[in-house]
Amino acid sequence: MRPDDALGGAAAAGREAEIVWFHRAPETDTDALVGLLNRLRTEDDALGFVVTGHGPPLPEGLATCLQVTPGTSAEARAFLDSWRPAVLVWMRGRFVAPLLAEADQRGVVRILADAAGADLGPPRSGWLAARRNLMRGFRHALALDADAAYRLRRAGLAEEQVELSGPLEESAVALPGSERRRAGLAEALAGRPVWFVPGVQASEVEALIAAHQKATRRAHRLLMVMMPDRPAEAEWITDALRGSFKTSCRSEGDEPTEACQALMADEYDEAGVWYRLAPLTFMGGTLGTGSTRSPYEPAALGSAVLHGPHTGAWSPAFLRLAQAGAARGVQDTDDLGNVIETLLAPDQAARMAHAAWESISSGAPVTNRLLDLIRDALDEAGF
């Protein structure tokens, strides 16, 4: 009854996967969750993952995402009969009592991560008794802040079961990129300033062309490199660029010559190469319906992050980088053109890139601790 895409490596090995169940909240850092799942899968390909709760889609084949939460006892029994998870990692709070009660009856080892005081409920009359019943099944809890840790202890968890860890956040995971291609493109660019726009939506192209026109009035050698979100739109976007600029196209074998003002980067395995080459990255989709890629991608490779007002599913990641001084938002075309011109100064972009690296590197200790707890829980469950 388990979909094949949840089995991953275990299915390939010809035996059933052991299932780790994650229940996420809307505030859960999707990049952090993906990073955690990837590390677990790398360590043990006999693990499968099911994710409940609402949130953005995860990479295909990594986990089965059920955009629902079984809320009744009958739904909980059906879910647990189908998946039979060994371990549950519950994120934030907002507990669903029938689901947790059924999990306890089946001996599912429970871990609470990213516990937030606001999601644990106010400490008022009747609160402690209700929360003690829910908390009793958690073997360990990682609290976002002191308020959450205090509430968890008042609700019945022992001192040694609660850790004040801070949030689960993604650490730096760099996209691969061919060093041979990077070196060849760097030689062709000959020190030209570059800004990269990955994941571009068709609705944004006109605004991005206008921003590049504005920026190149002073930075005459500036090159815009654009990678469409949808490969089917690459030809249309290339024609639009050619209507305003001398444009080269990677899929046609073109190199960025000195005369080239815009480059269509429609070789999608080169995203990591362009993050390494471009001191500035503007996240595609943020002038459209929402960011189409994670801002941690450029941040992990030393490219300063710019974005429009529509950050979409990646909003927590953009907020984290902005608070660290590692990302900068713009509201419109004029604003983007001005900011690009300002950040072309090497010290400006380098300062943002350094802040980005420090910010995303800080998430590693919490991820490592949660991995340890999951490993211990799997051992306890006999896997």
From TrEMBL:
Gene Ontology terms describing biological process: lipid A biosynthetic process; lipopolysaccharide core region biosynthetic process
Its subcellular locations are: Cell membrane
Main subcellular localisation: membrane
Pfam families recorded: Glycos_transf_N
Keyword annotations for this protein? Answer: Cell membrane, Lipopolysaccharide biosynthesis, Membrane, Transferase
UniProt GO cellular component terms: plasma membrane
Q: Determine if NAD is one of this entry's keywords.
A: no
> What pathway does this protein act in?
Bacterial outer membrane biogenesis; LPS core biosynthesis
A single GO molecular function term of this UniProt record: Kdo transferase activity
Q: Which residues form the 3-deoxy-D-manno-octulosonic-acid transferase N-terminal domain?
A: 14-167
Please give the catalytic activity noted in the UniProt record: lipid IVA (E. coli) + CMP-3-deoxy-beta-D-manno-octulosonate = alpha-Kdo-(2->6)-lipid IVA (E. coli) + CMP + H(+)
Record's superkingdom?
Bacteria
Q: Does the keyword 4Fe-4S apply?
A: no
* UniProt EC number: 2.4.99.12
Family recorded in the similarity comment: Belongs to the glycosyltransferase group 1 family.
Job of this protein: Involved in lipopolysaccharide (LPS) biosynthesis. Catalyzes the transfer of 3-deoxy-D-manno-octulosonate (Kdo) residue(s) from CMP-Kdo to lipid IV(A), the tetraacyldisaccharide-1,4'-bisphosphate precursor of lipid A.
What's the protein name?
Answer: 3-deoxy-D-manno-octulosonic acid transferase
Q: Which organism is it from?
A: Oceanicola granulosus (strain ATCC BAA-861 / DSM 15982 / KCTC 12143 / HTCC2516)
